[in-house]
Amino acid sequence: MQYILTIDVGSSSSKLALFDTQGKLVSLVRKSTSISATDSSLALREYDPHTWWNSTVEGIRELLAKTPIKASSITTIGLSGQIGTHILLDDKHQSLMSAISWQDGRAESEAQWLDATYPATELDQLLGMHPPQGNFLAHPSTSLAQKA
Questions:
Q1: What tens digit of pLDDT does each residue of 44-69 get?
Q2: What is the pLDDT, as a whole number, of residue 147?
C-alpha cells in the first residue's frame, strides 16, 4: 500500500500526517515550535529554522514508530509553511540568522515606501507577494545583504 506524508510548518507547531491514497487519515503528530526572538516594541518575530527542521524530523520518526508503515511506502510528500517568512542562507546553505516571520513588523517604513511607490496589485503581481522584509534586510544598517 502507498501513503502520503503531509508536513505543515506553522508558527506554533509542525503538523505531520500520514494518509492512505484514498485520503483516509492514518496518523497525525504535532511537534511544538516556538518564537526564538520577540520584542513587542520592535514588532520582532524570529524563529530558529533548525527548530522547524528538528520538529519535522522528529515528527516523521514518531509517525513511522506509531504505525506499521515503512518509509518506503510513502510515495508523495506535501509541504506547507509560513508564507512570507524568510531564511537567509550563505553560499554553503547555512542560515545566517533566525528566520524573519511574516509577523515581523520591523520593515514598516520600507512597507510604507513600497506602498507609496508602487500600486499594491502591481507589486504583488511582479513579486508574487508584498516583500518589505527584503528591503529591511538590504538596509545599510545590516551587513546580512552582502552575505546572502
A1: 788 888 888 899 999 999 999 999 99
A2: 61
Pick left, alpha or beta for residue 66 (phi over 0 → left; psi -120 to 50 → alpha; otherwise beta): alpha
User: H-helix or E-strand containing 74?
Assistant: strand 74-80
For 139, the grid coordinates are: 538596509
Q: How does pLDDT run across 69-94, given as a tens digit for each residue?
A: 999 999 999 998 877 777 888 899 98
For residues 134 and 54, give the distance between their C-alpha atoms in angstroms, rounded to a whole number: 26
- Contact call for residues 74 and 63 (beta carbons, < 8 A): no
Identify which of 54, 55, 60, 61 has the alpha carbon closest to the alpha carbon of residue 77.
60
Give the residue among 83, 80, 86, 57 at the shortest CA–CA distance from 7.
Answer: 80
Residues pairing with 7 in the sheet: 16, 79
Task: Compute how many other C-beta atoms are within 10 angstroms of the C-beta atom of residue 135.
Answer: 15
